[in-house]
Fold this protein.
Amino acid sequence: MIIEMARIRVLGPRRQLGDTLRALQDRGIVHLIDAAPIGGMRHDLDPVARRRRRHLKRALDDIERVIDGLGQLGAPVDDRTGPPPPEGKAAWLAARLAAKLQELRGRARALGDERDALRIYEPLFAEIDHLLRPEANHRVAIFLLRLRSAAALDALHAALARVVGETMEFRPYELAPGETALLLLVPQTRAAEIEHQLTEAGVERAPLPPALAHSSLADALPQLRPRLAEVERELAAVRDDALALARAHGDDLARARRGFHDALLALGAADHATTSARAFALEGWLPACDRAGLAAQLAAQLGSEISVEEIARDQWRGDDAPVVLSNPPLFAPFELLTSLLPLPRYGSIDPTPFVAVFFPLLFGVVVGDVGYGAAIAAIALGLAGKRTRGLACIAGAVAFYTLVFGVLYGELFGDLGARWLGMHALWFDRREAVLGFLVLAVALGLVHLVLGLVIAAARRWHRDHREAIGRGITAAMLVLIACVLLVLFDRLPGVLLTPAMIALLVALPVVIVLEGATALLDFMTVVGHVLSYARVMALGTASVMLAVVANKMHGAFGSAAIGVAFALVFHLVNFAITLFSPTIHVMRLHYVEFFGTFFEPGGGPYQPLRHWSPGATG
Amino acid sequence: MEALWMPLAAALAIAATALATGWAQSKIGASAAAALAEKPELRTTAVLMIAIPETMVVLGFVVAVLILLRNG
């Protein structure tokens, strides 16, 4: 349901505006709006407050940058509650730490880049150490080349073999896919010639890390491994510095962040106030049940000079009020489904309770299988954690109805229950009674839409009698059509046919008179929407038939093991389809067909002035 | 002769509506993907829009079932 809201005006001496806003922020229940300019009061942008806001924003930017930077350096700062440090001290600390962090992050970035450049050569380290050992043959020249394709490697090998024959050593190492480092060893006597040949052919030299870029290859190679170790040590030192900063100042930073956010929210809220030289006025919305409590609390906290008055209902429009949904614990999880649509207009009907009843019911009618129901129940149990409790409740309700209809249809993984356990349908067998299933689906649609039309009629009665009567008669016409069809199929006594037909023929022109010529089109749309519920039968039949086909795979492949494997895979696929397709279609039946009869979107969100918390907007 | 035409009619009822649904969904899906790239908050509307043409194939399926049941 949509909670009843009250619009209030808070009046008081101007010097208490800040205290009042802080008290409202502590309560966290008043959604502030621009106050009406009454008694000569007007919206006044206080230059002192504007300056303070600028300072706070700058300091908060520094704090956020420091906390973010520490996190990136492996020293996260956890959120903490408690009294914030003095604003001046916190701003100074944040500015100092921001400069320090900038320097640390710069160092970490440069060291990280160098480490990445050095790690490219890591596969060559052992080889280089071996070549550069004291007892090695120093009459060998070393080239470090980079090649970007296997073809280039082959071509280079062939070309060098022609020049230096078997005296060279050719050692390729893959650096990355499509990129090869080549360690080329040639006799010292042929080094100049090879150098010339490689330059002529445009063969790329492997680039050395930036720190060693100015050294010769001969000087650089022995330094690669030690430099990498040194860089790792320096990076660890940077991390230690960051951890020390987080330990020393993390608590102050976290509390200052909360305090600055809160102060900025309160300053932003002050923009909604109108003021004169001596007084202020604030206006806002809160749940009607909290109005008296707020007035008493403000009086106790700030004294009798603060007055809270309720603005009479005839002075505001329902469209302006923010919307708060509140449903019993059994229905509340289904707000997750209604939240996918815009909020209902204030004063209209919250569709959540109807979704809570019909969504799992229709899902159960479609899927209706004990095996799949048990699998969904297992998923619901898996989702029963704190963060996904709402989803778990929805899955639990869906599982319950799937199990119930599974028993009624006598299905366990299709016809497996019937074949192995002797299960039989308590109501009807969906594989045989396709027509009966269709009638059930359309009948559910009829009930659903008649309910929607009755809700619409009741809701509009106070606003527009003609429209309300029109909705009611449309609902009655749907029932009459159902009666006529039932008579024609010998389900009701034939004596009802004539009165039902006469009532229909009378009702149609009455609706047209009440709602205009479009009523006829509207009625046809409603009839179309009822027929749209045939999808319940279509999806249900498809689901059970897929399960039956999966069961028939056992024995269809010669080998029982292969047949069972295929059957399991097919059941898994069918289960995945079962989770997705009926959900989408049942949601659609609600959003398009059912909500179309009574739902009035357009409610504004309720955003009370409250304390900041991580993850909150603003 | 009826034994030939009835299954063909049922097949036609499903095939034509399935093609029509597929064609409509291809157009809506492409537009929805473009809209979602600009406004991710339209995801519910997009899913609903894509599901709407499926009414055609659902009704096609119902008609096909009725034809086959009539055939007996």
Notes: The two ends of chain A are 28 Å apart (CA to CA). Chain A touches chain B at residues 340-341, 434-435, 438, 531-532, 534-535, 537-539, 541, 584-585, 587-588, 591-592 (CB under 8 Å). The longest helix of chain A spans residues 224-270. Chain A has a mean pLDDT of 88.
